[in-house]
TrEMBL record:
GO terms for molecular function: GTP binding; manganese ion binding; phosphoenolpyruvate carboxykinase (GTP) activity. Keywords: Decarboxylase, GTP-binding, Lyase, Manganese, Metal-binding, Nucleotide-binding. Its EC number is 4.1.1.32. Its cofactor is Mn(2+). Belongs to the phosphoenolpyruvate carboxykinase [GTP] family. This is phosphoenolpyruvate carboxykinase (GTP). NCBIfam families: PRK04210.1. GO terms for biological process: cellular response to glucose stimulus; gluconeogenesis; glycerol biosynthetic process from pyruvate; oxaloacetate metabolic process; propionate catabolic process; response to lipid; response to starvation.
């Protein structure tokens, strides 16, 4: 749980009062707190009353030197870059057009799941009831009292001497009925600049707020600096905490400037709070890419796909298909908000406006489209720098002679440390993607025909399996597992359970999440088919069996044919797989189809045991019975095979 510092009682009381002032006290009280303490920017007068009250309360708590309301303009973005350059946060990359390099503090390089909490009155709102005596690791709960204390311990005066930026932002196209608005206040110009890429922000959102004043309050500070790169990257890694209080539409993040910890529209809003809103309002907020696929007959369909962080979502979202006649267009690479429309069609929007993609592994052969997107108007974080003022990362191609590594030191390949951090990123406007879909900003969203689930499974799991029906698909999602990646603080090649690729992002009890998914089929709705895919199976020698990347279009071809109900499948104990010859493998040599699709009985008996253990230990009484029914079916099918 939270490591709350022991501090003198009178300080706690003072700070708690201050926090109360900041987070929902009466107007009179916060005005009293403000009196004489900070200079207020005249821009504040233009804010709607609720936004202004939030900004003023935040300012009273954090005591910034200045408050700046972001308009989202080019001029503002230029000024931010200039300031960050002066402060040593970014440096220009002269080899490209308007590209910048940031090196973070080495202690602030990824999402910190262990310090990310959801607050609610009852623990069970957030964490499933696990087997007696064990605490479920699904969902990190914080009680309201500890939440307030965590804020009181960290925020009072934390922005002294800094500017507090106010970022009005929209998740989704401004004005779409599927979009939602947030306001993030932050003391990090890097966050402002990145939010301008990752969301729609500025005056147009303030305008929208004048019509509907509802918004999610996001408070962020990099904290009173205790990092090592204090000039360029202020942060307070020892005391980092990321808090969500869904009942109040509130996110509060302290101590980290990195990605999902600080760009609060992304994981915090679009997934954690989003999943709560989605359940309340009857839609789905998911960790999924969205892609449009046109087949050789010219028919276009869209699919959404859930893979855990750093498992190739961006690659699939921007795939260059090798199958002749196919065309792929990108709607989004990380998050999907999906809702059934009045005609029963599931429609999806990408709530984001940019790509915050993992750089290592991206190359002209793995993802030429990303490579064609990222060398303009991009902030690179923690990649290596070349002598010519360019960037490099592992997997991009041959390493240039002289490199500066992500820590700013000359890189010595003999030391075997990576030149770029494994979770180094590019932050790039989506509109720069050469295959961005014509409808990527469509207000009503794009129609979803199929949902793919998957992960990194080196052993036992076939290339593609179609769920027999929706309930079976929900079970597949609940049972998802994947090798850990560098996107969060986990290390090693351990295979982790990651249901629906949402394990770090559930905003409420996972058992209830499953019930919500199970409630989706309703009269008049056209349910998308659900598939599980695994591009990462290895042979006895540890080599990938399937070539992946553009060749995954062969799997998409089969998926779309199944969406047309073409009888090109065989039934197996796990679900449907391509019938012999149905997966188009023309031109692929040395492909061991038997190994790719084998269903080893011992492996699957163990897998069923692991799923049972996980369900019992992590979800317990909150698991819907339908999931036990599906597990029993799986066991029976495997036993009889
Ligand atoms: C991401 C993640 O940054 O999933 O998208 O960690
Ligand atoms: Mn992600």
């Amino acid at each position: 749980m939270l490591n709350i510092k022991v501090i003198p009682e009178d300080y706690v009381q003072k700070a708690a009062k201050c926090a109360q002032v900041a987070l929902g006290c009466s107007r009179a009280a916060h005005q009293a707190a403000l009196r004489g303490s900070i200079k207020l920017n005249p821009q504040l007068a233009a804010l709607t009353p609720k936004v202004r009250a939030f900004v003023e309360r935040s300012a009273a708590l954090c005591e910034p030197e200045h408050v700046h309301v972001c308009d989202g303009s080019e001029a503002e973005a230029g000024a931010l870059l200039h300031l960050m350059h002066q402060q040593g946060t970014v440096k220009p990359l002269p080899q490209y057009d308007n590209c910048w390099l940031t090196r973070t503090d080495p202690a602030d390089v990824a999402r910190v799941e262990s310090r990310t909490f959801i607050c609610s009155e009852h623990e069970r709102d957030v964490v499933p009831i696990a087997r007696a005596g064990r605490k479920s690791a699904l969902g990190n709960y914080i009680a309201p009292h500890d939440y307030d204390k965590a804020v009181a311990d960290r925020f009072p005066g934390c922005m002294r001497g800094r500017t507090m930026y106010v970022i009005p932002f929209s998740m989704g196209p401004v004005g779409s009925p599927l979009s939602k608005i947030g306001v993030e206040v932050t003391d990090s110009p890097y966050v402002v600049y990145s939010m301008r890429v990752m969301t729609r922000m500025g005056n147009k959102v303030l305008e929208a707020l004048r019509k509907d004043e509802q918004f999610v309050r996001c408070l962020h500070s990099v904290g009173r600096t205790h990092g090592t790169n204090t000039a360029g990257w202020p942060c307070d890694p020892q005391r980092t905490v990321i808090l969500h209080r869904p009942i109040d539409n509130e996110i509060i993040s302290y101590g980290s400037g990195y990605g999902g910890n600080s760009l609060l529209g992304k994981k915090c809003f679009a997934l954690r709070l989003g999943s709560v809103l989605a359940r309340r309002e009857g839609w789905l907020a998911e960790h999924m890419l969205i892609v449009g696929i046109t087949d050789p007959k010219g028919r276009k369909r869209y699919i959404a796909a859930a893979f855990p962080s750093a498992c190739g979502k961006t690659n699939l979202a921007m795939m260059t298909p090798t199958l002749p006649g196919y065309k792929v267009e990108c709607v989004g690479d990380d998050i999907a908000w999906m809702k059934f429309d009045n005609n029963g069609v599931l429609r999806a929007i990408n709530p984001e406006n940019g790509f915050f993609g993992v750089a290592p592994g991206t190359s002209t052969s793995t993802n030429p489209i990303a490579m064609a997107s990222v060398f303009r108007n991009t902030v690179f974080t923690n990649v290596a720098e070349t002598a010519e003022g360019g960037v490099w990362w592992e997997g991009m191609g041959k390493a240039p002679e002289a490199l500066i590594d992500w820590k700013g030191q000359p890189w010595d390949p003999s030391k075997k440390t990576p030149a770029a951090h494994p979770n180094s990123r590019f932050c790039t406007p989506a509109e720069q993607c050469p295959i961005i879909d014509g409808d990527w900003e469509s207000a009503e969203g794009v129609p979803i025909s199929a949902i793919l689930l998957g992960g990194r499974r080196p052993a036992g799991v076939p290339l593609v399996i179609e769920a027999r029906d929706w309930q079976h698909g929900v079970f597949m999602g609940a049972a998802m597992r994947s090798e850990a990646t560098a996107a969060a603080e986990h290390s090693g090649k351990v295979v982790m359970h990651d249901p629906f690729a949402m394990r770090p992002f559930f905003g409420y009890n996972f058992g209830e999440y499953l019930r919500h998914w199970l409630s989706m089929p309703q009269a008049g709705r056209q349910m998308p088919k659900i598939f599980h895919v695994n591009w990462f199976r290895k042979d006895q020698q540890g080599k990938f069996i399937w070539p992946g990347f553009g060749e995954n279009s062969r799997v998409l071809d089969w998926v779309l044919r199944r969406c047309d109900d073409e009888p090109c499948h065989d039934s197996t104990p796990l679900g449907y797989v391509p019938a012999p010859g149905a997966l188009n493998t023309n031109g692929l040599s040395d492909l061991n189809m038997n190994e790719l699709f084998s269903i080893p009985k011992d492996f699957w008996m163990q897998e069923a045991d692991a799923i049972e253990k996980y369900f019992k230990e992590e979800v317990g009484d909150d698991l819907p019975n339908e999931m036990w029914d599906e597990l029993n079916k799986l066991r029976k099918n495997i036993q009889q095979s």
